[in-house]
Amino acid sequence: MELQGARAIVTGGASGIGAACVELLRASGARVVVFDLAESGDGVLIVDVSDETAVVDGVASAVAQLGGLDLAILSAGVGGSAPLLDLTLAEWDRVMNVNLRGAFLCLRECARAMAGGGAIVAITSVSGFLTERRMAHYSVSKAALAQLVRSAARELGARGIRVNAVAPGTTDTPMFTATDRLPGYRERVAQRAALGRLGTARDVAQAAVALCTLDWVTGQVVAADGGVALHSPIDPQEGLDHL
């Protein structure tokens, strides 16, 4: 797909990874409508992605503005942290409603609007295939989103719609600042990445935008994590590094 002149929706596009996707798409000549809960300027529609009516109306409004729809990047998401035994249903639902329900609603409505085919990229997480304490609801939401992407790719291929996902690792975004209360966490995860640093929103956005352009790729979940998911707690080299 050529990005010049492409018509796009980016959810969660007012900050973080979503905002970086918007910047790259516009720099490549795409026309972009942003869905977010925060007003932040040009081309932003206030849309609660967990609300079906809001998503249906938002996509219809975006399509009317753009004259059609060629691609969508589903970046809206929330984090959360709680021990499993203390995890309330309200907190479980809060994360699921945005990360999974919201992604489903936006994927469905965007696909319905792509009359001539198109590309959809969801932002999931390496937490969807790693096991992290205090993050059961977040990890489950992202694992389910990855499976939704694969199922959608299989089903929508006949309509000429490609569906893929990017799985970020530790990425320096507003959501990540919640970990600043954990002493040494930022430095520790940077050291565990194969590339030796935290990711940036632009790093992840580059992967998402690239997937929009790859016409023979669908149903894939690409880790854009600098190799942090390659870390093994039983790596024998770690013992040798201290000798």
Question: Quick one: how many beta strands?
Answer: 9
- How many domains would you count in the coordinates? 1
Bin the helical content: 40-55%
Largest sheet: number of strands, sense, barrel closure: 7 strands, parallel
Q: Strand content of the residues, in percent?
A: 15-25%
Structural class: alpha/beta
Descriptive notes:
With 243 residues, this protein is an alpha/beta fold. The protein has a single domain (7-227), classed as NAD(P)-binding Rossmann-like Domain (Rossmann fold, 3-Layer(aba) Sandwich), CATH 3.40.50.720. It is 41% helix and 16% strand. It has helices at residues 16-27, 52-66, 89-113, 136-156, 185-192, 201-213, 237-241; strands spanning 7-11, 31-36, 44-46, 71-74, 118-123, 161-168, 171-172, 199-200, 221-224. The strands form 2 sheets. Strands 3-2-1-4-5-6-9 form a 7-stranded parallel β-sheet, with helices on both faces. It has a two-stranded parallel ribbon with strand order 7-8. Helix 3 packs parallel to helix 4 (136-156). The longest helix is centred in the middle third of the chain and has 25 residues, at 89-113. It starts with 6 loop residues before the first strand and ends with a helix. The mean pLDDT is 94.
